[in-house]
Write a structure and sequence with these properties.
Strand content: under 5%
Helix content: over 70%
Radius of gyration: 16 Å
Number of helices: 5
CATH superfamily: Hemerythrin-like
Bound molecules: fe (ii) ion
Largest sheet: none
CATH class: Mainly Alpha
Number of domains: 1
CATH topology: Four Helix Bundle (Hemerythrin (Met), subunit A)
Length: 145
């Protein structure tokens, strides 16, 4: 698995991550924007205080995005969603850990977040999310007819 996607340009998104579900794709692109912001902060040794803003944005993102995905999966009757929802819970727990770590002035926090978020888009966005794409797309097409 290639872990060096456009790293040098700080532009981590590429169209292979598209699920062709516009409301989800828009949210995923926002995740990559947050990731790019962190990458830049890490490379430029940005001030520690700015990490907090990204953590709060990440928290807001998870709340909205996971709600969107989970209700779409339920409405579309996607099978075996428990594992998917468990992964979302683990992500939410991780963001809580980041919040706590921030209060302890963990000076490698930004790098830990970059590593975690990269793993997330390589394993979750590009693989686990793909499992619901066809069923959700069919559901939305029928709903919009
Ligand atoms: Fe997901």
């Amino acid at each position: 698995m290639d872990t060096k996607i456009n790293e040098s340009s700080h532009k981590s998104w590429n169209n292979s991550y598209l699920l062709d579900i516009p409301m989800i794709d828009k949210q995923h692109i926002n995740f990559f924007k947050l990731f790019d912001k962190l990458m830049l902060m890490s490379k430029e040794n940005d001030s520690y205080e700015n990490i907090n803003e990204v953590i709060l944005e990440l928290e807001k993102y998870t709340y909205n995005h996971f709600n969107t995905e989970e209700s779409l999966m339920r409405n579309a009757n996607v099978e075996n969603i428990d594992f998917h929802i468990l992964q979302h819970k683990l992500f939410i727990d991780k963001v809580e850990e980041f919040k706590l770590a921030y209060t302890y002035r963990n000076m490698i926090l930004v790098d830990q977040m970059v590593v975690f978020m990269r793993k997330w888009f390589l394993m979750h966005i590009s693989e686990v999310d793909r499992n619901y794409a066809n069923t959700v797309r069919e559901y939305l097409e029928k709903r919009n007819q």
